[in-house]
Amino acid sequence: MSDTKKQELIAFLNRVIGNAKKLEPQLHEAAMRIAQHAQETGDATPALHLYDNLPKSQRRKAIAAWWAQYTQIVLRDSAKNGVTVKLDRTKEWAIDEGNANPFFNMDENSVGRPMGEIDAVSILSKKLDSLQKKFAEWEAAPEEKKVLIFKPGVNPQHEMEQLQADIAALTRSRKAA
User: CA torsion, points 32, 33, 37, 43, in degrees to nearest 10?
Assistant: First the structure.
């Protein structure tokens, strides 16, 4: 390749790189506006619109991870339904913190995980909390009422231990990744 051709290629690459660098702040603004809209209206469907229309890339994964970390917006990917969006109302909104920490500056370990794994620990933790409350209710209940709380043959202590083990395994796998 001649020096002239190489210089032309480098000039072209620099334009592409410059366009990509301009795109990230624009995408961050879009993600922020979607988060603000979802917080104000309870409508997270614009998140799915943006996600579906971005190329399948680390950038797209980073935006999904950013929403999961700083907002109630949760994207899920399933073989049956494809990618869906919902609001997780058990989470707090942290839009100001998210604005100060744009998706393109996120730790790559939190970005590379599949969407389903992003919320797995959160989901299991909620199940564990619910089971612990139900178990406390069961312990305080008279014997004749206990069968109404847990079905016969269900060992709530064993179920809690299993959930704790699953949470620990997921946490370990994240640290190892």
Answer: -80
